[in-house]
């Protein structure tokens, strides 16, 4: 299988429940959405790599056996061959997705699903729901929590390239936790704040 790969790098997970986890990020190119504020515009650039090429590169730079597959939107490519080779080598596998596509046979290989929805999603069962505060309302958050089953619920400020809406985000967090049955938490992009990749 040939994958469109934007970059592969070792770092610490910057966001969500696994913040600080030492992983290799495999960033796949391309997305089925085009959000105005997308911070991965460069996902249009890619080199073609097979699952074996990817494993080889990951093996060279890894500090442990954990990877996070991100994008772009990774689920628009057929992930099964890549997941199979990584799992065969004993990797913990996380994925970052917008939830537009179902994760079916892939689920057997994936240890952690983090979903950042941009609208209604097909995916309904995830480990972590991470909603970016693109002027969203308490009602929209309630809709998400009613529709999506997750272990952890996060809100993230929106970084539009110029500003990061911290203040309206913590206000929203306070408001949702007044009415929600879930415990919503704040997720910051700690890789940007701490100056790592
Ligand atoms: N350190 C670090 N953590 C991340 N978590 C999600 C990322 C992404 O771009 O998907 C990302 C990223 O680009 N860097
Ligand atoms: S879903 Fe994510 S990768 Fe795709 S355009 Fe939106 S922000 Fe960018
Ligand atoms: Mg990023």
TrEMBL record:
<dbReference type="InterPro" id="IPR007197">
    <property type="entry name" value="rSAM"/>
</dbReference>
<feature type="binding site">
    <location>
        <position position="40"/>
    </location>
    <ligand>
        <name>Mg(2+)</name>
    </ligand>
</feature>
<comment type="function">
    <text>Catalyzes the complex heterocyclic radical-mediated conversion of 6-carboxy-5,6,7,8-tetrahydropterin (CPH4) to 7-carboxy-7-deazaguanine (CDG), a step common to the biosynthetic pathways of all 7-deazapurine-containing compounds.</text>
</comment>
<dbReference type="GO" id="GO:0008616">
    <property type="term" value="P:tRNA queuosine(34) biosynthetic process"/>
</dbReference>
<comment type="subunit">
    <text>Homodimer.</text>
</comment>
<keyword id="KW-0408">Iron</keyword>
<dbReference type="InterPro" id="IPR024924">
    <property type="entry name" value="7-CO-7-deazaguanine_synth-like"/>
</dbReference>
<feature type="domain" description="Radical SAM core">
    <location>
        <begin position="18"/>
        <end position="197"/>
    </location>
</feature>
<dbReference type="GO" id="GO:0051539">
    <property type="term" value="F:4 iron, 4 sulfur cluster binding"/>
</dbReference>
<comment type="pathway">
    <text>Purine metabolism; 7-cyano-7-deazaguanine biosynthesis.</text>
</comment>
<protein>
    <recommendedName>
        <fullName>7-carboxy-7-deazaguanine synthase</fullName>
        <ecNumber>4.3.99.3</ecNumber>
    </recommendedName>
</protein>
<feature type="binding site">
    <location>
        <begin position="12"/>
        <end position="14"/>
    </location>
    <ligand>
        <name>substrate</name>
    </ligand>
</feature>
<feature type="binding site">
    <location>
        <begin position="37"/>
        <end position="39"/>
    </location>
    <ligand>
        <name>S-adenosyl-L-methionine</name>
    </ligand>
</feature>
<feature type="binding site">
    <location>
        <position position="31"/>
    </location>
    <ligand>
        <name>[4Fe-4S] cluster</name>
    </ligand>
</feature>
<feature type="binding site">
    <location>
        <position position="72"/>
    </location>
    <ligand>
        <name>S-adenosyl-L-methionine</name>
    </ligand>
</feature>
<comment type="similarity">
    <text>Belongs to the radical SAM superfamily. 7-carboxy-7-deazaguanine synthase family.</text>
</comment>
<feature type="binding site">
    <location>
        <begin position="116"/>
        <end position="118"/>
    </location>
    <ligand>
        <name>S-adenosyl-L-methionine</name>
    </ligand>
</feature>
<dbReference type="InterPro" id="IPR058240">
    <property type="entry name" value="rSAM_sf"/>
</dbReference>
<keyword id="KW-0411">Iron-sulfur</keyword>
<dbReference type="Pfam" id="PF04055">
    <property type="entry name" value="Radical_SAM"/>
</dbReference>
<dbReference type="GO" id="GO:0000287">
    <property type="term" value="F:magnesium ion binding"/>
</dbReference>
<dbReference type="GO" id="GO:0016840">
    <property type="term" value="F:carbon-nitrogen lyase activity"/>
</dbReference>
<keyword id="KW-0004">4Fe-4S</keyword>
<keyword id="KW-0671">Queuosine biosynthesis</keyword>
<keyword id="KW-0479">Metal-binding</keyword>
<feature type="binding site">
    <location>
        <position position="35"/>
    </location>
    <ligand>
        <name>[4Fe-4S] cluster</name>
    </ligand>
</feature>
<feature type="binding site">
    <location>
        <position position="38"/>
    </location>
    <ligand>
        <name>[4Fe-4S] cluster</name>
    </ligand>
</feature>
<dbReference type="GO" id="GO:1904047">
    <property type="term" value="F:S-adenosyl-L-methionine binding"/>
</dbReference>
<keyword id="KW-0949">S-adenosyl-L-methionine</keyword>
<feature type="binding site">
    <location>
        <position position="27"/>
    </location>
    <ligand>
        <name>substrate</name>
    </ligand>
</feature>
<keyword id="KW-0460">Magnesium</keyword>
<feature type="binding site">
    <location>
        <position position="70"/>
    </location>
    <ligand>
        <name>substrate</name>
    </ligand>
</feature>
<dbReference type="InterPro" id="IPR013785">
    <property type="entry name" value="Aldolase_TIM"/>
</dbReference>
<keyword id="KW-0456">Lyase</keyword>
